[in-house]
Structures are given as C-alpha cells and as structure tokens.
C-alpha cells in the first residue's frame, strides 16, 4: 500500500480512537475513581521502580503494547556465535523473524530513520538494536547509533538485545549510555543441552565447538545478567522453546535467570521450516504447538513474570507490535522525508494515549465487578482481531494476527497471539487461508472481530468457533468479559453445553509482509 | 598462502572485517574481499586465521591456492615464532 494512504488511515484511526475514548470514559465514570490497573494489564508483582520504567514499553508491558510502538534499526550484521535455528543468509531467527534480508544501515542513516519514524508515529517510544546479528559483536556501530539517538531524541528509550557472549565486556558502556533495558537470549544453563543448540562460538579470537563452546556461552550470559542486575539495569531474558531439546529444561533456565535478577522471561516458540535453511529446519526439528507453549509458560509463570505478547520482531521492525510499518521507512523514503523532531507534539499525543488507556482499564474493571460473585469452573480461550489501542477494531479478513485471551470468572487474561495469513486478498477470500486461520485459533471458543463476511462466518460456526461482531470498536477486555457472562448464563440455562476445545498450530511459514 | 573470500558465499555480515589484524579485509560491491598482499594468515597474531574462524559460512574464507606461497607465513602456527624472529 502506498505510504501516504497508509498514513492517512492511521490518522483517521487515531481520531476514531479519540472518540471512543471519550464515550467510554463517560460510561465508566461512575466507578473510575477506584480504577487501578488490573493485575494482568498492570504492575502485577513488579516492584514500583521497575513498573515505572516499563509501563509504556510495548515489549515489556502487555498493556502498553496496544498503545505504544517501537522500532529496531538493523545496524549490526555480524555475529559471534552460531545458532542451529539461524541461517544468517537471512535475518537472525532469534530476535527477528526469519526469511527476509533487512536493509543494513550505518549509524547515521539509522538516526535519520529514527527521527523520521518518531515524527510520523508519535507513539514510538522505544528504539531497539537487535541485530540482524549480535549488537555486541558490532559494538562500534551499535553504541555509535545509541549515542547519536540519545543526542537527537532524548525522550526515546534505548534497548539492546544480545546473545550475551560479549555482554560482560560492555557493561560499563551500556551503563554510561543509559540504555534502559537489555534482553539476553538464554536457551540453556546446561552445556550438554547447549551443545545441541550452538554448533560453535567465536570467543577470544578462537572458535570453540561442542560442550566447551556452550559452557563459555552460558557462563558469560549469566555473568552478564548478574552484572546488569548489580547496576540496576533492567534485563529481560528470551528463550526459544525447542521441543525435545530444551523444553523441560527451560523451567531450570527460568529459575536460574530469576535468581540473577531478570525481571521478565519471554519463552518464544522455535520457528523452523525447511525453506529457512537453518540446521533445525533442514533436520526437521519441529516447533511447539500453541498448547505446548502455553503449558510451559504457565509452568514457569509462578516463578517470574512471563511475557506472552512477543512477536519475534524483525531486526528492522517499525510500529506497534504486530503491525509492521517498516515498508514506509526504507532508506530511500527516509532520505526524502522532511524530518522535524517535535518533542512537545509527541508529549501531547502520548498524554491522549494515557487517557484512553485509563478509560479502557476502567471499563474492564466495571465489567469484572458485574461478574463478581459468579462462580464457575469454566475457563476458555477467545481470539480477538485488533489494530491496537485495546479495541476490537479489525475485520476478520484483514487480521494478520489474533490476540488470545483466557476467560474465567476472574476476568480476561491475555495469553498470547497467533499470526495468520490475511484471509481477504483484494476483495476475495481464500479457502486455504481460511482453514489455516481456523487451525491457528482452533483452541478458541469465539473470535471477536469488528466485521466478518458471510462465508467465513458460516465456516467458523461449523468449526464450533463463534464469530462475535456485536462488540465492534469496543474495548477488548470489557467486551470479552461481557460475552463470557452471557456464555455462562446460556450454559446455566442449558441453552448450550460447554465443551473443551483441542490444540492449535503455531504458524511456521515465512512472515507477514507489511501493508 | 594468503586467504581469500569466495564472494558467491559471503553474506556480507562483516564479522571478519574488524578482526583482521592486518586490515586486509574490506567491502567491495556488497561483498567482502581480502587484499592478498596484506594477509599473513594471522601468523604471529592468533592461533587461527581470524576471518575463517569468525565466518558463519563454512569454507568461505579459504586459502588461495592460485597465488604463490606467502613469504612470511609458516605452516606451523606458532604465535610466538614471528615475535622471536623480529626480536633478534
Ligand atoms: S545470535 Fe542471532 S544472528 Fe547470531 S547465530 Fe544466533 S540467531 Fe543468528
Ligand atoms: S587470515 Fe588473518 S590476516 Fe588473512 S585476511 Fe584473514 S584475518 Fe586477515
Ligand atoms: S565473515 Fe564470511 S560471510 Fe561475513 S563478511 Fe566475512 S566472508 Fe562474508
């Protein structure tokens, strides 16, 4: 889609959201006085200083990811280790989605791009460097970029993702540049398991292989994590779940990283298809199913806050999570753009976002209050089509992903998202894609959309998934709880019978194109 | 013998470039190349040729057999050898 048209659309969407916000705020006003962030949307058991730092960070706060955007700049192509799930002919599979080569930028080009995006997307609050290789294997380019951005756009938060091998050597620079958050990918703390994931590392001018390599890597990762914690720099840990290799072991990893001060653990499914050309892909190593992933996340949940909204973003992603606008910001386009960094405009916009966010929380709070007193052992999953802002505002046919919520009498809890291929192709629905979408949300009882066509509607009903469009453009959590209440009522009256649904597949294909 | 980069396999990841102790590696037309005259196979600096050890694509940084043997390089990789020589 043409960039200008696309931008126009977003302005309109923002205005629509503004209207929504007002009306919802009125409806919610009665109880909003005691409204606080619900446990799932908010602070949870995070310490207050940590919560303050992350509450507007789309990658760290489930709630913020509906409202704030991030971008990555691909300035770091080199890597110092080899992972079996990565084929560096393409992007890094661990921090970015595989299959497409990114445009490599110099630090100067990167800064220009950051300013162009920040001007166009005022809710862009976070800049990350995550490869396509390892940022700390490219320290000069990475730190130069951060320095230039800190100077030109001081309100933007900086974050860094690394495999951790070089981390202990760079802690002082990370602290000096006031990098807000660091993410380390830690897939094992047992070198025997590590040897199955990492064929080699390059360390101190030497190539190490097998258990030796994995031992050095895990020691350096954990040491790096400890050093970050000592200096009070927030650190999240990413792990790739590889069935039969590290799946059970990740519970151990979870304990190890928690005890060393990680504040968030993000377990992501292995993405591996033969066409990606990775060692795992070629060997036929499968990724986990949706329920396997959720079960592992649940098993780790008690230990440390789990992140479930990770999109395994590309090293050059731009925009809200799940809504990639990078096609609007190619180097050619960025060079042509008229860039005026306006801090005040950004602040004003973000204040409006905060109002909207508070209204959303209040609405969900109200709805939860209505349900208090209800007792039912039923829990079920529903899928939601959204473009952000916490609203049900996407057509079934246009959805690139569905967000999944677990509903119970204690409310609606976000548990993950499912990527799908867009069903509607220039006005026509594609049969194959519809069945793939249904496989992707097969464990859900209902799907919430702003609009849906007759044909997919009847197919969904046949598959036992209820298409729900009566809450179009309303807040997700509030609507999901309201629907769940009526569901429980119908079960009580004997109109419907509650049945468990089966598992769903995690999409392995290469990734959604922007636009 | 100096090293060379098989350009059809190079992913231009740039991992090799900063590691070369002799600044023999540079980018040319989207791929990386080694200037044969500058390459010492890393003898005297490191135990392994750095470009080959760091390159993610196997058999991309390889010995260039088409060129005459490099004068200063020894097949026995003793990192101290060259040092010893230059001291005397
Ligand atoms: S750290 Fe990233 S770029 Fe490096 S090998 Fe692993 S997945 Fe690939
Ligand atoms: S072998 Fe060593 S000296 Fe020769 S190009 Fe590679 S890194 Fe440079
Ligand atoms: S390390 Fe290998 S792939 Fe990377 S630039 Fe050098 S020769 Fe090319």
What does this protein look like?
The complex is a heterodimer of chains A (515) and B (88). Chain A is of the alpha/beta class. Chain A contains 15 helices and 18 strands. In chain A, the strands form four sheets. Chain A has an eight-stranded mixed beta sheet, covered by helices on one side. In chain A, strands 14-13-12-17-18 form a five-stranded mixed beta sheet. In chain A, helix 5 links the parallel strand 4 and strand 5. The radius of gyration of chain A is 22 Å and the shape is globular. The N and C termini of chain A lie close together (6 Å). With 88 residues, chain B is an alpha+beta fold. Chain B has a domain of 61 residues: 2-Layer Sandwich (Alpha-Beta Plaits). Chain B contains two helices and four strands; from the N terminus they run E-E-E-H-E-H. In chain B, the strands form two sheets. A two-stranded antiparallel sheet of chain B has the order 1-4. In chain B, strands 2-3 form a two-stranded antiparallel sheet. In chain B, strand 2 and strand 3 form a beta hairpin. The C terminus of chain B is likely disordered. Chains A and B meet through loops of A and helix 1 of B. Bound molecules: iron/sulfur cluster (3 copies). The site of one iron/sulfur cluster has 13 residues of chain A, from strand 2. The site of one iron/sulfur cluster has 15 residues of chain B, from helix 1.
Distance between the termini of chain A: 6 Å
Largest interface (CB < 8 Å): A-B, 16 and 16 residues
CATH architecture of the domain at 3-63 in chain B: 2-Layer Sandwich
SSE order of chain B, as H and E?
EEEHEH
Helix-and-strand structural type of chain A: alpha/beta
Characterize the largest beta sheet of chain A: strand count, sense, and whether it forms a barrel: 8 strands, mixed
Which stretches of chain B are poorly predicted, pLDDT < 50 over at least 5 residues?
70-88
Radius of gyration of chain B: 13 Å
Helix content of chain A: 25-40%
Mean pLDDT of chain A: 77
**Helical content class of chain B:** 10-25%
Write the CATH fold name of the domain at 3-63 in chain B.
Answer: Alpha-Beta Plaits
Distance between the terminal alpha carbons of chain B, to the nearest Å?
A: 25 Å
The percentage of residues in β strands of chain A lies in: 15-25%
Return the average pLDDT of chain B rounded to an integer: 78
Our estimate of the beta-strand percent of chain B is 15-25%
> How many runs of DSSP E, i.e. beta strands of chain B?
4
Strand count of chain A: 18
Low-confidence stretches of chain A: 1-41, 94-101, 509-515
């Amino acid at each position: 889609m043409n960039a200008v048209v696309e931008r126009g659309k977003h302005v309109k969407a923002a205005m629509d959201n503004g209207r929504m916000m007002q009306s919802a705020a009125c409806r919610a006003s009665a109880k909003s006085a005691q409204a606080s962030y619900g446990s799932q949307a908010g602070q949870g058991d995070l310490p207050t200083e940590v919560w303050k730092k992350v509450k507007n960070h789309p990658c760290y706060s489930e709630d913020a990811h509906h409202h704030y955007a991030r971008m990555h700049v691909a300035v770091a192509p080199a890597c110092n280790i080899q992972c079996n799930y990565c084929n560096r002919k393409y992007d890094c599979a661990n921090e970015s989605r595989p299959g497409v080569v990114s445009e490599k930028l110099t630090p100067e080009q990167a800064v220009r791009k950051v300013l162009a995006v920040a001007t166009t997307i005022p809710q862009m609050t976070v800049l990350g460097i995550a490869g396509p290789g390892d940022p700390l294997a490219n320290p000069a380019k990475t730190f130069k970029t951060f320095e230039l951005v800190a100077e030109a756009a001081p309100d933007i938060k900086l974050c860094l993702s690394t495999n951790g091998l070089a981390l202990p050597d760079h802690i002082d620079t990370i602290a000096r540049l006031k990098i807000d958050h660091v993410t380390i990918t830690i897939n094992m703390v047992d070198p025997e398991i590590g040897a199955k994931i990492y064929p080699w590392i390059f360390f101190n001018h030497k190539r190490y292989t097998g258990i030796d390599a994995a031992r050095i890597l895990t020691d350096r990762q954990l040491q790096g994590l400890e050093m970050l914690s000592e200096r009070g720099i927030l650190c999240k840990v990413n792990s790739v779940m590889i069935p039969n290799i590290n799946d059970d072991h990740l519970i151990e990893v979870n304990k190890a990283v928690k005890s060393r001060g990680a504040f968030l653990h993000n377990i992501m499914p292995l993405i591996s298809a033969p066409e990606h050309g990775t060692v795992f892909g070629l060997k036929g190593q499968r990724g986990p199913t949706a329920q396997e992933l959720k079960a592992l996340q649940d098993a780790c949940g008690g230990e440390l806050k789990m992140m479930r909204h990770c999109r395994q973003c590309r090293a050059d992603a731009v925009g809200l999570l799940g809504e990639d606008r990078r096609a609007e910001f190619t180097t050619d386009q960025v060079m042509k753009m008229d860039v005026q960094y306006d801090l005040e405009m950004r602040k004003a916009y973000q204040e409006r976002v905060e109002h909207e966010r508070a209204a959303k929380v209040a609405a969900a709070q109200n709805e939860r209050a209505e349900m208090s007193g209800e007792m039912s052992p039923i829990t079920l999953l529903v899928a939601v089509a959204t473009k952000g802002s916490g609203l049900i505002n996407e057509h079934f046919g246009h959805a690139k992903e569905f967000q999944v919520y677990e509903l119970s009498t204690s409310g609606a809890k976000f548990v993950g998202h499912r990527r799908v291929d867009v069903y509607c192709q220039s006005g026509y629905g594609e049969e194959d894609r519809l069945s793939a979408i249904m496989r992707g949300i097969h464990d859900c009882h209902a799907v919430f959309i702003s609009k849906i066509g007759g044909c997919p509607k009847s197919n969904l009903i046949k598959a036992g998934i209820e298409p729900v469009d009566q809450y179009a453009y309303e807040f997700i959590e509030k609507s999901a709880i309201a629907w769940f209440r009526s569901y429980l009522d119908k079960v009580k009256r004997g109109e419907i019978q509650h049945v468990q649904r089966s598992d769903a597949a995690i999409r392995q294909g290469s990734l959604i194109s922007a636009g | 013998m100096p090293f060379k980069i098989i350009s059809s396999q190079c992913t231009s990841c740039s991992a090799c470039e900063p590691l070369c102790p002799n600044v023999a590696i540079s980018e040319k037309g989207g791929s990386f190349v080694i200037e044969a005259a500058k390459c010492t196979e890393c003898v005297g600096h490191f135990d392994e040729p750095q470009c080959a050890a760091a390159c993610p694509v196997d058999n991309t940084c390889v010995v260039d057999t088409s060129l005459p043997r490099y004068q200063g390089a020894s097949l026995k990789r003793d990192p101290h050898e060259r040092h010893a020589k230059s001291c005397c």
